[in-house]
Amino acid sequence: MNDFQAIADRVEIEALRGEFTDAAMMRDRPRLASLFTADGALRMPNIPAELVGREEIRAGGERLQSQWDFFVQTTHPGTILLDGDTATGRAYIQELARTLDGRQGLNYAVYHDRYQRTGQGWKFAERVYEVRYLDTSPLAGAAPHAAQDSGTSPADATAAPAAAASFACPASAERLERAAAALRAGGFAAEILDDAAAARARVKDLVPEGASVLTGASETLRLSGIDEDINAGGRYDAIRPRVLAIDRATGADEIRQLVAGPEFVVNSVAAVTETGSLVLASGSGSQLPANAGGAAHAVWIVGAQKVVPDLSTALRRVEEHALPLENARAQAVYGMPSAVNRLLILNAEPRPGRGTVLLLREAIGY
Fold first, then answer.
1. At 28, is the pLDDT very low, low, confident or very high (cuts 50, 70, 90)?
2. Among 26, 252, 309, 330, which residue's Cβ finds the most Cβ atoms within 10 Å?
3. CA–CA separation, 284 vs 265, rounded Å?
4. Sign of the CA dihedral 43, 24, 144, 192?
5. pTM of the predicted model, to two decimals?
């Protein structure tokens, strides 16, 4: 190997390591997985995680990244030892991270690497992550919220949280795809449909005739016609009309049992994150048990404007956008204000296939 080839190989391997950090920071799991050989391995004993093959690396990355509030990784050049079409090396890492459950810290780590020349250039054959220093002291900083699809530039996105008005803007096709992929990685079934009419037809496919069905108090269901289909169409054993016919003073236990465990719950959500979480808010909490797992099956219909980058933005959307609109509706219909007294966050579906999320390309509901 001549000196020029050796220099080119070193530059390409260094670029590969930089691309890994960029894909991790941008949460681009398919790109990160593509940096490995087909049978490449990413081993992280400190996590712990051991991922072999591109599909495991992609899916494992989605599971890990769905837990982040924020994550910052800086890569520093290390050694590269060339040996024909293979090479070994080390890269030195500094990371800041906070997870959604409050774990946080600063660490310094080493990636012990093996590289392989392929027809598509140098790839990782193996990365082994070793933490050398960990400080779990509370971090003073915070992650600026990502801008919504409202023409805001990346520079503007770091300046301040997204304005509440942007919570009404439909997400782009790319963001819908990211949310759908993250939901699937968490065990949900996720489909992207054009509009509410398509969702209305799909619900009829998903929910068999005669099934007991509870609908949530949802503007999305009302505006789409799904609420009327289920509760007034005669096709299903509709729970909500039965509940409304029961005296609340004497039949509270019967109501509680009816709404807690139907065959199907059909509802919407206040927000869905690009990291694969569903957020539901409620004043009474009566509809939440069925959504959380009491119903054998769940179908959630979600307008494109409800897709947000992460959980912290989802909670802002509940408080700053959904609650004021629901409060106005409650005042008009019931003569009393609404409140977020109960909050349900679904980060994954432990029974794969139980829950289906229908993401719409159009905005509907609030």
1. confident
2. 309
3. 17
4. negative
5. 0.58
